[in-house]
Design brief:
Layout lengths: L16 H49 L1 H5 L3 H8 L8 E8 L6 E4 L24 E10 L2 E11 L1 H53 L13 H81 L5 H31 L8 E4 H18 L3 E5 L6 E4 L1 H17 L5 E9 L2 E8 L33 H11 L3 E7 L3 E9 L26 E5 L3 H12 L4 E5 L2 H5 L3 H4 L2 E5 L7 H11 L6 E5 L8 H5 L3 E4 L4 H23 L1
Parallel strand pairs: 6-8, 12-13, 12-14, 14-15, 15-16
Antiparallel strand pairs: 1-2, 1-4, 3-4, 5-7, 8-9, 9-11, 10-11
Helix pairs in contact: 1-4, 4-5, 5-6, 5-10, 6-9, 7-8, 8-9
């Protein structure tokens, strides 16, 4: 907005003067116009009445004077009477007519007069505006009897000149009055406009400069003055509010700075605590998995020996107990592994029918023991998934296990449905249900619905949290629908596999060498835990491998067996030199890249996995004997294939 200076021109459309002057001119001109029109109409009517009255008066006078001449048919006397119209210059012609007779006498232009009274046309009731002539015929009355007619025709130009002259004078007076009113309006308009323009200038200046101090603005003691006073009062309030706001803002900034410093200190403390927690989990993971690893390998080695029936049964119980202990530990550590990105899916083609068959074999007896029905539903046509079978099986086991815990009557339904290009795996139960306000939080860590049935003996509240993480790893979506005291439905949505595709990256079971084919392979085991090392030695020795066990990397490097070994199984956490450093030292001594497996119980996130272990194959404890042998076989097979290709 440009700066406002001066009162403004009447032609400046941005000035308030323009609409006010336009409104004033319109009002004045409209008033003058209405006054002139009404005056013209009224004066026109008066002129027409004057013309008729004047002509009728002249006609009546002539008729009275000529009544005797008409009665006696005295044409000369009648003409003498008609000469009276010489005093009326506007009368062009006049005549008298006896009843039913020809014209008796005339005055003026006889061609304008009818020949007989029968030719006289009726007089028009009105004289038209600015009409050139007018005619009047009146009866000649004697003793209340009409004995004849007097006829007059007159020119009206004199009347109309007088009328138009009067109207011109009236218009001139009206326009003069309008001009005077406009001049007076413009004179007093500045008394209104100037304070308003000054007010606009002050408002603009206050906005641009952010200066809200009151300004002196001259104004009369009227509505404009009230507006100026209120505007200055508003400026005072704004200025006071700004000062108060600045004070409050300064205080708020001080408080924010203090709280930020406190939060930074708290954040640093939390990060330190989280780091300590991570270190504790890593240490706990390694130290707890070590004995479980040893127990499982000892059990596997024991099961391969000649046992009687009772010993076999006890071995099976021992295996079940070991697996249960490993599962409890895994539940406590799986959340850390999942968050760290250490769980990697290994997709393979699986049939939903086979997956649900495994589920039924595991859980149908458990449901029957609790008096519950256990049903499966899946389409008859083939339904395949390309996913990690172990992770998916574990996820479903978790959901079904929860359903069994919280269902006391009715049953459980495990269903597989196809929805366009996805497969929906659903677990239905008729259990206690979940309140609507808890549906958003059931997948959070350590959350358990506050139910009398859901006590701490039924879990740590981590199961559904693990389910959510595993579903994300598998590329699926997990959801839940539930109604209190009617049951719940958990639903996992996974992309359906292209059944024509093959899992070329996966090794089938028959692709592996038989354990006997590994006989004679020299394996160096570097493990500081004596029981774990002994378990590996017994397990692999049963397959015919030649095993040498070392407690430290330095001890192994000092032995000649290390340089002639075909394979290395190395614990990552060793006293002194760690497992990676040992393998790097071996790499420098031997002619071919060493085949090796790193065993660890560390919790390492996916982003740091390569940085932590490099290119070495890593297995996380506890490790099944089958998995350990399968990895040894895989690396040996690849090495043999490379060697054969090089010889060709």
């Amino acid at each position: 907005m440009s700066k406002l200076t001066g009162p403004g021109s009447i032609f400046d459309r941005r000035s308030i003067r323009f609409p006010i002057i336009r409104l004033t001119m319109t009002a004045v001109l409209l008033g003058i116009g209405l006054a002139l029109v009404s005056d013209a109409i009224l004066m026109l009517d008066a002129v027409r009445k004057d013309i008729r009255r004047s002509l009728e008066a002249a006609g009546n006078a002539a008729g009275t004077a000529a009544s005797a001449a008409v009665a006696f048919r005295d044409a000369g006397a009648a003409r003498d009477v008609l000469r009276m119209f010489e005093a009326y210059p506007e009368i062009q012609a006049a005549a008298v007519y006896p009843n039913n007779r020809a014209r008796l006498a005339s005055y003026g232009d006889a061609s304008l007069l009818p020949a007989t009274d029968a030719d006289i046309k009726p007089s028009s009731p009105e004289i038209g505006p600015l009409a050139g002539t007018a005619t009047v015929h009146l009866p000649i009355i004697v003793d209340d009897l009409a004995i004849g007619t007097v006829y007059l025709q007159a020119r009206l130009d004199a009347y109309w000149r007088t009328y138009l002259t009067t109207m011109a004078a009236t218009i001139f007076v009206g326009l003069s009055a309008g001009a005077l009113a406009l001049l007076l309006a413009m004179r007093f308009l500045d008394r209104i406009i100037l304070p308003v323009r000054l007010l606009a200038e002050v408002a603009r200046d206050a906005r641009l400069r952010q200066d809200f101090r009151p300004r002196p603005i001259p104004a009369a003691d009227d509505e404009i003055g009230d507006m100026v006073s209120n505007f200055n009062a508003l400026l005072e309030e704004i200025d006071a509010s700004r000062q108060s706001l600045q004070t409050y803002q300064s205080e708020l900034e001080r408080l924010v700075a203090e709280r930020t410093a406190e939060l930074s200190a708290a954040k640093e403390g939390a990060e330190q605590a989280n780091l300590a927690k991570s270190r504790f989990l890593a240490a706990a993971s390694h130290d707890l998995r070590q004995p479980i690893q040893a127990m499982r390998l000892f059990q596997d080695a024991l099961s391969k020996t000649a046992l009687n029936g009772e010993q076999r049964r006890i071995t099976d119980y021992l295996a079940q107990s070991t697996r249960s202990l490993a599962e409890i530990l895994n539940v406590l550590l799986d959340v850390s592994k999942l968050d760290g990105g250490m769980v990697k899916p290994h997709p393979e083609m699986i049939q939903v029918r086979d997956l649900l068959g495994t589920i039924e074999a595991e859980f149908a007896p458990l449901a029957l023991a609790k008096g519950l029905r256990f049903k499966l539903f899946f389409p008859h046509r083939t339904l395949a998934l390309h996913t990690d079978a172990k992770l998916l099986h574990g996820l479903l086991r978790n959901l079904i296990d929860n359903a069994l815990k919280y269902t006391d009557h009715g049953g459980i339904l495990v269903a597989a449905r196809r929805r366009r290009d996805r497969v929906l795996l659903q677990v239905w139960d008729t259990g206690i249900g979940i309140a609507p306000e808890h549906l958003r939080t059931i997948f959070d860590e350590y959350f358990q619905v506050s139910n009398p049935q859901r006590d701490s003996t039924k879990g740590l509240g981590l199961g559904l949290s693990i389910v959510r993480r595993v579903a994300a790893i598998l590329g699926g979506r997990i959801g839940c629908h539930s109604r209190m005291r009617q049951g719940s439905m958990f639903e996992l949505s996974l992309p359906m596999a292209d059944e024509s595709a093959s899992d070329s990256g996966a090794l089938e079971a028959n692709d592996f060498l038989q354990p006997s084919a590994l006989a004679g392979i020299r394996v160096a085991v570097i493990e500081d835990d004596l029981m774990a090392a002994k378990a590996v030695e017994l397990s692999l020795g049963a397959c015919g491998m030649e095993i040498a066990v070392f407690r430290t990397a330095e001890e192994a490097l000092a032995d000649a067996f290390v340089e002639t070994a075909n394979f290395y199984i190395v614990d990552y956490r060793l006293p002194g030199m760690n497992g990676i450093e040992f393998l790097e030292a071996v790499r420098k001594r031997v002619a071919h890249p060493p085949k090796a497996i790193l065993l660890t119980g560390e919790t390492v996130d996916a982003a740091n996995l390569d940085a932590a272990f490099g290119a070495w194959k890593v297995l996380f404890k506890p490790v099944d004997l089958e998995v350990l042998i399968a990895e040894i076989q895989a690396q040996v097979t690849r090495a043999q294939s490379v060697s054969a290709a090089a010889e060709e």
